[in-house]
Give the backbone structure.
Amino acid sequence: MNQIQVEGGRPLNGDLVVQGAKNSVLPILAATILSGGVCQIQHCPALRDVDSAIRILQYLGCRAHREGDELTVDTAGLSRCDIPEDMMREMRSSVIFLGAILARLGRAEMSYPGGCELGPRPIDFHLAALRTLGTDIDESTGVLRCSAAELRGGEILLSLPSVGATENTMLAACGAEGTTVIHNAAREPEIVDLQNFLQKMGASVHGAGSSTVVIQGKRPLHGCCHRVIADRIAAATYLCAGAAAGGEICLRQVDYRHLSTVTTALSQAGCRVRSTSEEITLQSDGHLRGITPVRTSPYPGFPTDAQALLMAALLKSQGTTVFVENIFESRYRHVAELQRMGADIRIEGRVAVVCGVSSLHGAMVQASDLRGGAALVVAGLQTGGTTLVGHIQHIQRGYSDFVENLARLGAHITATNT
Ligand code: EPZ
């Protein structure tokens, strides 16, 4: 299937169990390398990116077996320390294998990672942290050749609370002699989930969720069983779809605290949101209003990954909403496609001003990245016609059963082949 077809104008109603978190399971799959044993990953979403991570593990000599949403990974057979360029280019998270391989084998070789094109995405914080832990890194040939006779614990100060750099450092530090302290660490729920997984393997990692993470390295590690947290960005996507299309949806098995900035914004726009420990219910009449400026920032701020989704939900809102994208330089590639559907959005650098319009029309549009692609579908639910979304491989990287889930909620949506 390479295209999604959406007939707009139908409300969404019903319940949905939220998939496991992409941005949690990917660093966890890299972390399995540290165990040298068998790990069972439950609530593992069926995603293109997870398949890419499995291919990397198998290339490195590990074994992986999926049964439903449970993935069993055995890393006893790890025999290689290099990852081919094509596998590195498939996704940004491939670089998180660097810290794990270094901790396990003391050397690693790979090219720079790929992933969504959101503007420059350097890995200088990752490399600086690994160098502080005693890694020699030769970048002279455009390939990262890394070696560490012995990793040593150290003090790491991140100039930005980078999610990836925090994760890579946590993994490498598990193989380092002594204590590593990460200051200005990322505080995302996925970092906490990674810490919980590492602790189950026997690692001494503490402080995740705060700005300071402390790792005592060189603990004997072993296999374990872990259930991945729910995907807060997938949940945000369905909430924005329900808000825009109207109706009442209930998301199950999701931690409402991970979505507080998103549900606050949707409540301000006129939705009724009720949350319990494991559920979020949203009611909307589909007539939203503009809200106060939305500034993306590291967790617990408003997630950059939900920017395009909320923007799509507010295209027909009463009034104006200003978005400020503070994390990535060019994360408005979905705007030109939304304008094809009749949206009124003006961009000035990192600022986008959404002026609500009375109607949107169907169009042929192209996904250019994961969240931008999902936003086009959210917009398509609000038109009076048919929207055809192409390049859906971007969407399949991060959403499992996206079309089926929306259809189950009552959307008139199908995946087709052109
Ligand atoms: C993670 O990417 C997520 N990906 C992204 O989600 C998310 O947008 C991002 O965090 C921010 O929340 C995964 O977890 C797999 P960063 P990551 O390092 O780790 C700059 C999605 O849609 N930076 O926190 O790559 C960087 O350029 C994806 O699911 C450096 O300058 O993000 C960016 O401006 C898209 N040097 C900022 O920091 C570095 O060495 C935050 O990046 C590292 C980062």
Observations:
- The pocket of EPZ is lined by residues 22-23, 26, 92-93, 116, 120-126, 160, 162-165, 186, 233, 304-305, 327-328, 370-371, 398 (CB under 6 Å).
